[in-house]
Amino acid sequence: MAAIFFAFSGLFSVAAVCLLIAAAADGVDGYVARKTSSGPLGAHIDSLVDAVSFGVAPAVLVYCMSGELISILFVCLYAICGILRLARYNAFPPQEPVYSGIPITSACVSLAVLIIFFNEVPRAAFEVPYSNELIYITLFLLSLLMVSTIPYPKVMKKITFVFLIFLFSGTSISVFIDSPYIIIFPGVLCLLMLFYLLSPIVGLIWKKDSVRL
Fold first, then answer.
1. Alpha carbon of residue 73 to chain centroid
2. Which of 31, 150, 163, 49 is nearest to 108 (CA)?
């Protein structure tokens, strides 16, 4: 909800930071649920929250950023595919430690960090040409990946999760600190998310079913 409000207020990087915080919270609540006795109510609430946090909120953010009518096509496609992805996960829970299609949380993080990078990189005396078009292409590809059956690895190792929280924190802080060097955090996170998007291909090259994270 905060991401949507900040998006309508024109604070796009701050809205993207809210999405990163939501993604971190999504990982934490899953950990807490596994360690405690949680009933069926939590699972349904989790899916509803995910639909808003990682489906609707990023779509609203991209629309507010672009201000172009054509963006409606891409943001609606993203939101629809995200909801389909969540519904499929609930209806057919994975039996293996891999996801069928990229998780909506990972798709949202990829989009959020790209938005932060595009908005903050001018402070390092760089410009990203055709940023709107690149975001549209990213939205389209993420939409297809969410409803695909391509196997994506789960983040299983605690050290990987801790490292991601460190990068999330650095990326979030970079929005509020006026320094060209702090852009390193969203840059590294962008590269890491690109590696995750390509991890099924890496797994095939290594002749494994998935890349363990």
1. 19
2. 49
